[in-house]
Amino acid sequence: MSTSSNGVDGGVFAAVDIGASSGRVILGRASGSGVSLQTVHRFPNGVVEHDGGLRWDFDALFTEVLAGLRTAATVASAQGETIASIGIDTWAVDYGLVNKAGELVAQPFSYRDDRSRAAVAPVHAKLDPSRLYQTSGLQFLQFNTIYQLATERGLDGLQALLIPDLIAFRLTGVRRTEATNASTTGLFDAVAGEWATEFFTALGLRKDLFPPLIQPGETVGTLLPEIAAQVGLPQVTKVVAVGSHDTASAVAAVPAQGENFAYISSGTWSLVGLELKHPVLTEASREANFTNERGVDGTTRYLRNVGGLWLLSECQRTWAAEGFKPDLTALLAAAAALPAGGPQINADDPYFIAPDNMPERIRAAVRRTGDVLSSDPAAITRCIMDSLAAGYARTITAAERLAGRSVDVVHVVGGGSQNALLCQLTANATGRPVVAGPVEATALGNVLVQARAAGAVAGGLAELRRIVATGTSLDRYQPLVAARQGCVN
């Protein structure tokens, strides 16, 4: 995927793309012939210990968003362009509480905080888990919004805004809840595509706790005068709803042909699943802990959260604190040289959610299986890669069975698509070819939904994916009998 500013003539769009560890503001240029991305601002993100828990420093994040939009406006102007709109995507589940005056009453809690664990049983006492699943279709995770909200007190006069919606509100003054992110709350009806108001009632929550829903491609509003002045953009600049759950944007940009594909959005977390026309709300699906989340154009992202590269990044953080800072390429090469069949862990065990000494956690988890893992970073890295690939394979096999869909190819998008070892091990474990890329799937999906809303591109998801596929360099990995590594183009 080109990262230059040349070659695409159809419109320029600003994508605010924030993950759990970093954020970016990107200028995207799109037409029917392709998309180009130009990152103009990067900034760190991460949880902080504050006011009795793990929270996000939202004020700092928003300051960085404004700085990025200001840079984007300058860059676009210097190139004789006008930004047509702004789209925002972030992680899901977390929210900020805003009072009637529009003030954020506290920095938002992070899903990595353990406060919601104690709320699970009280919620299930009021709403049977089977009933919850039959309506929301949501995978049980202790940090789902529904459990976080059950820990709150004094919600009178407050409104909950999911993180991308909170950013959009700060930019426009308009309160809306984008549907793909709403579907991750546990308070959303997966079939009707509306709030499950009976759940609000059962839990003693106001039905207007969240703002009204908005769909990807619809306009949230235009910039507030003071925001427009700060960032150097016209006040008429639109903020357009995209797949504001970053995985929804990423899946929209999977360069797949046809329907029989599985996707892995590989980053801090791995989101592994299928794209369906309708949710799967069976008891077997609930017992397998699959989730039905909203996708762009009303699709269903049928998936499971599987552990991700958070495991490796946390190991790197621990090793660095101990004075060992291995080059990632060399570390992966050393891991690839190790024989197959080594110890594995359950990579999506909640035991690994919170930050801590991850190498020792992984070794302890291996010991509980009766196996032994050395403290060598290469061995720990190989354990992570093998465990992730095995988790991907199990999840795809289960999704096929539960959804009645066969998979011919596995698409890996996001940062993990650059990890040749992980991609090859995934091909080996699934027994299917893996197509890796684009790395920037989330930003591409964000930009393409904006571009379609502006009329710069046209068509459904198949057409958007064709645009991505024609302009992206993809790596292909064939399953190998032996666990040796290599890219087969």
TrEMBL record:
GO MF assignments: ATP binding; glycerol kinase activity; rhamnulokinase activity
InterPro entries: ATPase_NBD, Carb_kinase_FGGY, FGGY_C, FGGY_N, Rhamnulokinase
Broad EC category: transferase
SUPFAM superfamilies attached to this UniProt entry: Actin-like ATPase domain
GO cellular component: cytosol
EC number: 2.7.1.5
Top-rank taxon: Bacteria
Carbohydrate kinase FGGY C-terminal domain boundaries: 262-454
Positions of the Carbohydrate kinase FGGY N-terminal domain: 14-251
GO terms (BP aspect): glycerol metabolic process; rhamnose catabolic process
Pfam families, A to Z: FGGY_C, FGGY_N
Keywords linked to the UniProt accession: ATP-binding, Disulfide bond, Kinase, Nucleotide-binding, Rhamnose metabolism, Transferase
PANTHER family given in the database record: L-RHAMNULOKINASE (PTHR10196:SF93), SUGAR KINASE (PTHR10196)
Protein family per UniProt: Belongs to the FGGY kinase family.
Name of the protein described by the UniProt record: Rhamnulokinase
Source organism: Pseudarthrobacter niigatensis
